[in-house]
Each structure stands twice: as C-alpha cells, then as structure tokens.
Amino acid sequence: MSEPKSSFKVIDYLYVFILAFAVSLNSTTTLFWIREPQIDPGVFLYVAQRMFYGEMPYRDNFDHKGPLVYIFDYLAELVSPILGPWILDLVLMTATLILFYLTAKLILKNQPAALILVTASAAFIPEFYHGGNTVEMMAMPFIALALYVFCKYFINNTIQNHELILFGLSFAAVLMLRVNMAAPWIVMCIVVVIREIRQKKAAKILKYFLLFVAGAAIVTVPVLIWLFAGRAFNDFIEQYIVFNIKYSKAAGNEFQDGPIYKVFFSFLIKPQIISALVFSIYLCIRKKKLFAVSMTLMLVLSTLASSISGKIFEHYVMAVIPLSIPALASGIKELNDHLKTMNWKQFIAPIAVLVLFGIVPSSVYYSKNGFDTESGMDIDMLQTLQYIEQYTDKDDSIAIYGNRDSILYLSNRRSVSKYSYQSPIATYDKSILDTYFNDIETEKPKLIIVSGTAWGLEMADLAEHVKKFEYEKLPSPGGTIVVIRILN
Q1: Average pLDDT over residues 277-283
Q2: Chain-wide mean pLDDT for the chain?
Q3: Three-class SS string for the chain?
Q4: pLDDT at 313
Q5: What is the mean pLDDT of residues 252-265?
Q6: What's the predicted TM-score (pTM) here?
Q7: According to the model, what pLDDT value does residue 135 have?
Q8: C-alpha–C-alpha distance, residues 172 and 217, integer Å
C-alpha cells in the first residue's frame, strides 16, 4: 500500500512544478525567448553583473534594495548570464508553490482540495509578475516558509528547534530584501508570545527567541561581514535605511499615485486578498480563535506595509499572496460537510487545464508593432545595443539618463556614474543629479543614452552639460531612446 501513496506524492509535486513552470513563462527571458528586463530587475541584474568585475553594491553602484537581491542575481548570472535569472525565478516559484501546497494540505487535511487551492492561487500570480526577478518574487518562498512553520505550530501545538531556526532565517532573508515585507513576523511573534503565556509556558519564550535569533544570524552575519569586507557597509546604511525613509515619507507627492490609503485599498480589493480577508474576518467572528485574528492582522498589516511608498506597483501585491493561503484554506475547511461528500479530485483536471492556459502569457506572440518579431526586443533597444557595440569597447563607460539599466546589463558596459539611474531617486535627493553630471564632465563617456523612463528629469538639465562637448545625435527608429555620441 505504501508504494502507490508515495508515487501519488511525486505526482503532486510534479504537478506543482508544472504550475511553477507555467507561471515562470511570464518572465522577460525564458528558454523560448529573450526580452528586455523590466525597470527594477534591470537595475538588480546590472548591479549583480558589476560584482563580477570586483564592484560592490552600494559602494560602487547606488540602489536602495536589500543586499540579498544582488547576491541572488549574482548567483543566477553565475549559472548563466542570460537564462540564470529565469532559472532563479523557476526555483523560487517552485519552492513557493510547494510551501503553499504543504500549508493548504496541513490545514485542509484534504490533498485534492489543497491542490485546487494552489492551482487557483497560481492563476493570480501572473497579474503581479512584472516580468519576474522582482524583490517580491525573491521574498515569496521565505514568507511562505514562515507561514508554514507558524500554521504547523498552531495545528500541532508544538514546534521543533529546526523550525524555529528556519522561522528566524526566513525573517532575516526578507529583511535583507526589503524591510516592509517583514511585517507578518511582527504579528506572528507577538501571537506566539501571547499563546505561550496563555498556555502557561512562558519559560519557553526565551528558548524560542534564542533559536529565532540563531536562524536570523545564519543570513545576516555573512551578509554584514561581506559588506564590511567590501567597504560598503556605510553606503548600505545610507541607501537601504536612510534613503528608504526619505522614499517612504514622500508618499503623496507628484511622483506618487496617491496617499497611502488609496494605494492600500487598491491592493486590498485584489480578488485573492479580499477573499482571504473576508474568510479570516468571518472566522474571527465565528471561531474567536487567536489563529484567525493573526491571519486577519497579517493580511491587513502586510497590505498596508506594501502601500507605504504611495506607488501602485502591482508586483508589490506578490508579498501579500502567501498570507492568503492559510486564510483561504481555513475558510474552505469550514465547509466540512461538503469536503466529506464532494469528490474534489474530479475538479483538478478541468481547473488545471483552464489555469495553465490562462497562466501562459500572451506575450509569447510578439506584436509586430514596435517589436522585432524574431528577438522580441524593442526596436529602439536593438538599435541602441548596436550603437554601443559599434562605438564603445568593453572597458568603456556609458551614461544612461533616466532609468533603464537594462541597457547597461544587456550591453555589459559600466555606468559612467555610481548613479546608473537617476529617476525617480533624484526627486528625493537633489545632490544625485549634481554628482551624475559631474561624473559625465569628468569621464566624458562615448555615449549618453536618454531613456523614455526619465520621470522628474529635465532634458534642459542634461543639455546644459552636453553642450560643453562636441557631439552628434544618432538616428533612432522609434524615437523612444535618444543616443548622443560624444566626439571630443
């Protein structure tokens, strides 16, 4: 009897991998096509690429995300400069969906129903995928891991030492990606303390804390040593902590999409999030259990934390999706009578077919309007990469005005300035543009490339400095990128 059961488990995980593979096809680069990375991933991949040349994040290249972002992308590019980021996405998504499945099965005690919930959850992810290689993508498996440990603790009324270590490790990993995504741990830690005190087991709290810290140290200590050794620690503090405080405080200015409450509700009404919240509130009222309260608080707090920038970037929602799994699974579990009489297995095949067809992106069929149908790359981008190959050598630096580090990454060229992009960061710190223009005048890059993504920047400011050189403007087929060649 044990052999069929074991083989069925393998089929479950194979099915989850197929789901993850389908979701990963929303990446800008896959086995089947290569396209330009989105804006944020372009920065991450460029910073990671420069690490191969002995450069350090923060010290040599400005960015305000956590250090694990560049370490992950460095490892991905080590595997393959082109396919590595997609392989990383596939691994992360597979781990995430497996943890979704384990959590759902733990709560539901019903294998087919757990697979259906994971399938439905996977169907929502492409809306927030944003081309892959996002900070949220990297954080999802760690958030899902912590939730699995948390749910297991509540259901089994016990927790193993290694699970506490993993709980702390996952917290530190998310903290080293982006601070506001670590919001669920605030709720989970407080709830664990309350539960232990209520059960008159307060003596265990110190042990839990020490194991949690030990797990967190596994991630934080090597990363901090690496930053210290690379003389990048002070820059890390300035960019990851000080600058991000400025960034968060600026919510509501002209470069934001609105006040925090507006962004919060735009995220909250996403179908999977609002469904999970309704279930968790219902369970709070009906069951009056600490677990239901914790699910509600985590959903609200994490959605709020994702809103503090004031920007409605869909990929921010990915950090909240793992939190919906325990709430949805608990809500479905309330339909106990139906679960006992309904044959959930009959729903898996048709739902899987529908979802897989929905997940595989329409972007595999490249539009002939503005794109090269053979490469899937923007025509202006292809022309720009040809100019870079024609007019510069591998050791030359170039300048990007705006925010399109994917040009640097795809051409494997160094930015003339530490501030490889200036938009929108220069709107929060005016000294950034002064440094950038000074670097242009000092180094005189062979090419200055003005991207179409230059929010808050003025062409007149660049022209004031470019006119000091003899230059020519190179032809651009689509007019979305301006390439200026410095002649003297």
Answers
A1: 88
A2: 86
A3: CHHHHHHHHHHHHHHHHHHHHHHHCCCCECCCCECCCCHHHHHHHHHHHHHCCCCCECCCECCCCCHHHHHHHHHHHHHCCCCHHHHHHHHHHHHHHHHHHHHHHHHHCCHHHHHHHHHHHHHHHHHHCCCCCCHHHHHHHHHHHHHHHHHHHHHHCCCCHHHHHHHHHHHHHHHCCCHHHHHHHHHHHHHHHHHHHHCCCCCHHHHHHHHHHHHHHHHHHHHHHHHHHCCCHHHHHHHHHHHHHHHHHCCCCCCCCCCHHHHHHHHHCCHHHHHHHHHHHHHHHHHCCHHHHHHHHHHHHHHHHCCCCCCCCHHHHHHCHHHHHHHHHHHHHCCHHHHHHCCCHHHHHHHHHHHHHHHCCHHHCCCCCCECCCCCCEHHHHHHHHHHHHHCCCCCEEEEECCCCHHHHHHCCEECCCCCCCCCHHHCCCHHHHHHHHHHHHHCCCEEEECCCCCCCCHHHHHHHHCCCCEEEECCCCCCCEEEEECC
A4: 83
A5: 71
A6: 0.90
A7: 95
A8: 8
Across 44-53, 66-75, 111-120, 255-264, least confident range: 255-264
Least confident range of 144-148, 361-365, 366-370: 366-370
54 has pLDDT over 50 = yes
Q: Crossing angle for the helix pair 290-305 and 271-287, nearest 10 degrees?
A: 150
Q: b vs e for 145-184, b when ≥16 Cβ sit within 10 Å of the residue's Cβ? A: bbbbbbbbbbeeeebeeebbbbbbbbbbbbbbbbbbbbbb
Q: Are strands 471-474 and 397-401 parallel, antiparallel or unpaired?
A: unpaired
Domain boundaries, the chain: 379-486
Residues 441, 72: Cα–Cα separation, whole Å: 34
Most confident of 122-136, 344-358, 366-380: 122-136
